[in-house]
Q: What sequence folds into this?
């Protein structure tokens, strides 16, 4: 399928997600066993529950039945990106405000530092972490990797 088809599919999906205060993180499609497998990763502030994924899956399935985007059989899978997914975009960080993060960043003299703290804010060019040593502003161009801190 071409990218135009995926754009049409995304245009169908995004209003459904927006009604539930969710965002599309990733949309993929490939053939598996002669049928289309459509996978969506969705996220929202505070994460996504299994129930939300199931509801969105049903609603997208109904919308696809009414639309004529897909010829043949298909399966739709909706899931959360997971807690250990790296934060890569500014929007990923915005969704993580209030969460505890582990951020790997370049420090003075390009030394790599691992920072842990609660994400307080996302600015135009940086993030602000609340650490035990106080608030710390980390420019995006210094961040080498980031993820939510997993509490066991």
A:
């Amino acid at each position: 399928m071409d990218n135009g088809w995926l754009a049409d599919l995304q245009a169908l999906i995004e209003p459904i997600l927006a009604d539930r205060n969710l965002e599309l993180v990733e949309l993929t499609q490939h053939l598996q066993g002669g049928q289309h497998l459509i996978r969506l990763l969705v996220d929202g502030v505070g994460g996504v529950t299994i129930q939300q994924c199931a509801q969105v899956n049903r609603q997208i399935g109904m919308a696809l039945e009414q639309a004529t985007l897909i010829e043949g059989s298909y399966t739709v899978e909706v899931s959360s990106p997971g807690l250990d997914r790296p934060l890569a975009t500014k929007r990923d960080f915005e969704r993580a405000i209030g969460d505890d993060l582990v951020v790997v960043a370049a420090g003075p003299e390009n030394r790599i530092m691992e920072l842990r703290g609660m994400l307080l804010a996302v600015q135009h060019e940086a993030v602000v972490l609340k650490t035990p040593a106080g608030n710390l502003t980390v420019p995006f161009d210094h961040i080498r990797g980031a993820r939510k801190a997993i509490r066991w």
